[in-house]
UniProtKB/TrEMBL annotation:
One of its GO terms (molecular function) is phosphoribosylformylglycinamidine cyclo-ligase activity. Pathway: Purine metabolism; IMP biosynthesis via de novo pathway; 5-amino-1-(5-phospho-D-ribosyl)imidazole from N(2)-formyl-N(1)-(5-phospho-D-ribosyl)glycinamide: step 2/2. This is Phosphoribosylformylglycinamidine cyclo-ligase. The keyword Nucleotide-binding applies. Belongs to the AIR synthase family. It comes from Nocardiopsis coralli. It holds the Pfam family AIRS. It comes from the Bacteria. HAMAP family: AIRS. Its EC number is 6.3.3.1.
Length: 353
């Protein structure tokens, strides 16, 4: 963030606080340092993040990239004045898309736009981003904080990120690897993750729900439950791919389980999913009840407790479940791949919590 030729005083009068931006950078440095990987190269100017790709490690390295944001979940973070976890959501939305291809996430950059730079708040946000990168095993190599007075209110902000990963050319995962008879493995979500928050905010407003009130069945306040950060699956998926025959992944985001899983299927098979293998969780039940939302709409909006799906060779299903359990990630046999037309077939009734 640099001053215009009219001088820092004129820029400050226009609403941009250069000193606050510099203090925010100082505060975030310790967070960013946690994410450093040995492949990083120092750029003394600070204008770019440099990362050396170890080509000797790969036969045919293919770079994968993804970019995303957090959506309207940031509005809840602002409403609750809680900013230390929203960055984890950002990282998860990026790196958990990357691993669907089989790629190992290498590094990320972030972009934060705000009405006014409050250094401590920016540092909290970046602290969350750094924590997400730490969980994913990737480096946070750079970013940008932009002050937009007049375009945003002082307390408002939005954030976006981009990530890069690498996968061997002959190890790219996807629909072409999926076979009839494969096992479908579910990995538990931590909640709605970062999807469906426009509907959530509508439910909160129309049902006049108190975000600060304790909800007994949730064991916390509604606001805290809704701000639970997105699960970062990247490291778990990288570990799983290295140990078992994974054919495809599906990151369950906007559109729900059925639509996202179908994206990972070829057009000659279906994935049959049994609702009876899991209970979505009390937060989803609470939202459906308070909002009067039908199951069909819930399933088309939320992950309903399944945040990532792995399609693996049938003979590796038990080993996959054991590996994920050993990593502390709840996972279960969700269903199987059968002959079909590229659809997800969801059957049965949810298990009682």
């Amino acid at each position: 963030m640099a001053a215009e030729n009219t001088g820092a005083g004129a820029y400050a009068a226009a609403g941009v606080d250069i000193a606050a931006g510099e203090r925010a950078v100082d505060l975030m440095k310790r967070h960013v340092a946690r994410t450093r990987r040995p492949e990083q190269v120092t750029d003394a100017s600070g204008f770019a993040g440099l990362f050396r790709l170890d080509t000797a490690k790969y036969r045919d390295p293919v770079l994968a990239t993804s970019t995303d944001g957090v959506g309207t979940k940031v509005m809840l973070a602002q409403q609750l004045d809680r900013h230390d976890t929203i960055g984890i959501d950002l990282v998860a939305m990026v790196v958990d898309d990357l691993v669907v291809s089989g790629a190992e996430p290498l590094f990320m950059t972030d972009y934060i736009a705000t009405g006014a730079v409050v250094p401590e708040r920016i540092a909290e946000i970046v602290g969350g981003i750094a924590e997400g990168c730490h969980q994913a095993g990737c480096a946070l190599v750079g970013g940008e904080t932009a002050e937009h007075p007049g375009a945003m209110e002082p307390h408002e902000y939005d954030l976006a990120g981009a990530g890069t990963g690498v996968v061997e050319g002959d190890a790219i995962l996807g629909p072409d690897r999926v076979r009839e008879g494969d096992a479908v493995i579910a990995m538990a979500s931590s909640g709605p993750h970062s999807n469906g928050y426009s509907l959530i905010r509508r439910i909160v407003d129309e049902a006049d729900l108190d975000l600060f009130a304790e909800v007994p069945e949730l064991g916390t306040t509604l606001g805290e439950a809704l701000l639970t950060p997105t699960r970062v699956y990247a490291a778990d998926c990288v570990a799983l791919t290295s140990e078992v025959e994974v054919h495809a992944y599906s990151h369950v985001t906007g559109g729900g389980l059925a639509a996202n899983l179908a994206r990972s299927l070829p057009d000659h098979v279906d994935a049959h999913v049994d609702r009876g293998t899991w209970a979505p969780g009390p937060l989803f039940d609470h939202l459906a009840e308070k909002g009067g939302v039908a199951r069909e709409d819930m399933e088309a909006t939320f992950n309903m407790g399944v945040g990532m799906v792995a399609i693996v060779a049938e003979q590796d299903a038990d080993r996959a479940l054991a590996l994920l359990d050993g990593r502390g990630l709840a996972a279960w046999r969700l269903g199987s791949v059968t002959a079909g037309k590229g659809n997800t077939v969801v059957e049965g009734e949810y298990r009682s919590a």
